[in-house]
């Protein structure tokens, strides 16, 4: 079983991510509850970095769940950069078609892999998957049916990059 880290814009996409985190084929990182996350954020940048480092430990792949504003989130960028530095497999999955806690999808967001950062443009090196279905249940089924294969590909690709 692959141990994975899920990166996302927590406030906006947590309810969408809950569906994916429940997939049995992958062992997710520990999720902070809303109150725990609020405490971590109030404690400052060092506390956030420490939490991220603890969650990345023992993982083989980072899955960036891409919602409408994920690409602009600084902590998503940090998680992506640390994952890359740690030589983890990295991939992105658009989740805009999945319904949130209010039963609503969101707008499709930009890929965080094309954003400038200390690693530059990772888009040529990282695959981003966009389920072709627009109905939430069908989009979820597409992700559920393919995510393990996508993770295995990301891990193998990262290992091959030396």
Features:
alpha/beta, globular, 5 helices, 162 residues, Rossmann fold
Question: What does this protein look like?
Answer:
- With 162 residues, the chain is an alpha/beta fold.
- It is built from five helices and five strands, in the order E-H-E-H-H-E-H-E-E-H.
- It has a five-stranded parallel beta sheet.
- Helix 3 crosses helix 4.
- The longest helix is centred in the C-terminal third of the chain and has 25 residues.
- The chain is globular.
Structure described in brief:
The protein has 162 residues and is α/β, with parallel strands linked by helices.
User: In DSSP terms, counting alpha (H) and pi (I) runs of 4 or more, how many helices?
Assistant: 5
CATH architecture: 3-Layer(aba) Sandwich
Task: Summarize the biggest pleated sheet.
Answer: 5 strands, parallel
Q: So what's the oligomer here?
A: single chain
Rounded average pLDDT: 93
Structural class: alpha/beta
CATH topology: Rossmann fold
Question: Strands of the biggest beta sheet: in what spatial order?
Answer: 2-1-3-4-5
Calculate the terminal CA-CA distance, rounded to whole Å: 23 Å
Q: Name the CATH class.
A: Alpha Beta
- What string, H for helix and E for strand, traces the elements in order? EHEHHEHEEH
